[in-house]
Amino acid sequence: MVVALGCEETKPDTIVTTQAARTAPPEAAASNLAPKPLGPPQLAVTESGPTVRGMTALVVGEKGEPDVLGLGKLTSYLADEKEFLGGHDLNIQVERQAKPLAVAILLSELSKLSPGKIRVTTETRAEFPREIEFVPQESLAQPDPCTLVGAITADRGTAIWKISGGTARKRGRGMGGPDLSMTAETILSSKKGCESDLFFVGAAPGVEWGLVYDLAASGMALEKAQLKRAVVPTSPLLAGNRVDLK
Q: How many domains does the chain have?
């Protein structure tokens, strides 16, 4: 006897499953996305720029100018992390080859989220602190006019003056870079009679962050100077010029 075979029928439950997948509400589709982070992001600044949870924003252009597109990306990255940044103490890991302006821009953007203390960590000399509290300039009232300012010059020397302006006291380059031992003497003598615990630091164009950090750290290491916090402005520091925050 010959038995006729028909075409295999689609199982009803398969049809239901397929139709359900096509008509699944947006909430169900969203549940398949990566879960929302449950902890604070790692903040860093590399030679390329600020990094937030592994995403880098190129905030400094090829000629050393702020990059508007990169700044927009950084603002967006930080906004997504607002719950972890606002009101919390933060730590930023900064590579020595990073651009000082990139560090200043990140600090400036973070200040808009009202964080707690911001500490910057950078590899430095053994006798210097590897972690320093940096204060975004936007969060400061006008500092005491005697507040110290230090800059790494284009020839890798140093210049020290006061935020109110005046003659900058310069030290030449040492054997391996800025002569921070001689600069320390200048810091101590310039600091006499001033109670401000702030130290504004910066550098000439093309100078890497590591040298700026070393300068700040050298000041923090001087117990008699009583320097506790550093500031890296977004505007260039010109030796002897008055420093305005706005």
A: 2
